[in-house]
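Schema walk-through. Below, the input block comes first and the output block second. Nothing else is stored per chain. Lengths vary across the set, and this one has 116 residues.
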Amino acid sequence: MRGGGPLRPHFVACYPLCGAHPRNAPARQSNVHNAWMRTVCGRIKSDYRYSASVVYNNFPWCNPTKEQKETIEDAAHGILDARAVMAAYGFNTKMTESECVAELFKMYEELTKKSN
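--- output ---
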């Protein structure tokens, strides 16, 4: 999954990256890329500062086989589907499972109040 070429810094926003090839989205959201990002990117307070010139353009992209690309793309669709469900609930996609369950129980409590 070679990158789509260097990005110009003034076009970069934190996920998604403008100008980045969509086929690289699964890799950019992987544990591999996040480990790289956490190690090499700058910080503002405790937040990561993603930079095209430091993080994206220097990331060592892999060269998967056709079969691996298909597997990665299938997994990416699953991730996007899961995020769509989280968004439909109004949940933050970064929330923990415990936080998710806590919010679901709040919703459940409201539903049971209405039925009584």
